[in-house]
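Wait, mind explaining this?

_____
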Amino acid sequence: MDTSFSFSFEPAGFFTRLKKNGKYSFKTALEETLKKSAITAEELGQNLTIDQATWKKICSGDYLPTKNTIFSIALTARASYEDVCYMLATIGMEFDDTIEREVVISYLLKQKVFNEEMIKAAFKEYNVRNLFITWLDE
């Protein structure tokens, strides 16, 4: 059962803010992912349960997203597994194959399963919660 709790972001540290426009920043990784997915940050933000002010700060690199936020972005934007790994790496994280929730999400991404009903069914079966996607609450 997924009992993890997560905020959608953490404030970026001083040195991270200095490098927020760099090649290996989350901001750059997000922009590249959105370009490949043919979705704008505004459209993506409307499909996430993150308030708009916080979302804008995440997109600008002022706030660093949590894993759950990146997973929410990935499933909503239909991102590739590789792009998600890249976004995770920019915040110093990676998929943890010992956490059931992350195994389920990595499987969905690797298999390119983006059908909302199939994702809901997988999440229900494995008790995956705490993501910031609007259609999961329906």
Q: What stands out?
A: The two ends are 20 Å apart (CA to CA). Residues 34 and 96 are 24 Å apart (CA to CA). The longest helix spans residues 26-37.
